[in-house]
Amino acid sequence: MSSYSKLIIFILVLLFISAAIIFIDSSMDNINKTMPDISDSVVNGNKEYNEAVQLVNDKSFDEAKSKAISAGDNYNSSLNQLNDIRNNFSSDITNVQKEYIDTVIKELELKINAVNNLKEAIGCFELNSNYTGTTYASQANDLIYEASEYQYERDSIVENNSDLFKQQNFII
To answer: Percentages helix, strand, coil for the chain, rounded to the nearest 5?
Structure first.
């Protein structure tokens, strides 16, 4: 093999390595840019959900339904973005980050189910079917409580791996 061929092979290998490094860095940049949006959607969803519950207690059902829908939209947005990260960038994130994402996904799935139960409760209360409405509201409350356990779990993951999470904008 001539020295010219060896040089071409060497340059191609360097190009492939460089491309791989750039791809990994750009995918982590993409993840780091997405995480604040996900966090904002979760925070807004929590706020909207709590406001919906308060409005139900005040018997302002139309406003409560609107807030519940908004909470669900926020949670679904975060869930979709996290699923995209998990499905498209799983090779670029650590096992701890994967565990964190999986925990947040479980939390969001419970919150979405809670929102759905709250919307059912609102519909029942509007029809003066208070017993059924209370049952749905109670189920929503139980789901939010279960979701808070996952929130505690993800806070523990961050606390136990603070160096990893300080390096990146990976916290929700």
So the answer is: 90, 0, 10
Give pLDDT, residue 50. 97
**Cα 135 to the chain's mean position, in Å?**
27
Low-confidence ranges of the chain (pLDDT < 70): 1-8, 10, 12-28, 90, 167-172
The Cα 24–Cα 40 span in angstroms is 25
Query: 75 near 42, Cβ under 8 Å?
Result: yes
Show the CA angle centred on residue 128, arms to residues 125 and 133, nearest 5°. 40
Query: Helices 95-126 and 61-88: crossing angle, nearest 10°?
Result: 160
User: Hunting for tokens 């029809």 — which residue is that?
Assistant: 127
Q: 55-92 pLDDT, tens per residue?
A: 999 999 999 999 999 999 999 999 999 998 888 876 77
- Structure tokens, 35: 């995480």
Largest interatomic CA distance in the chain:
88
**How confident is the model at residue 90, as a pLDDT?**
67
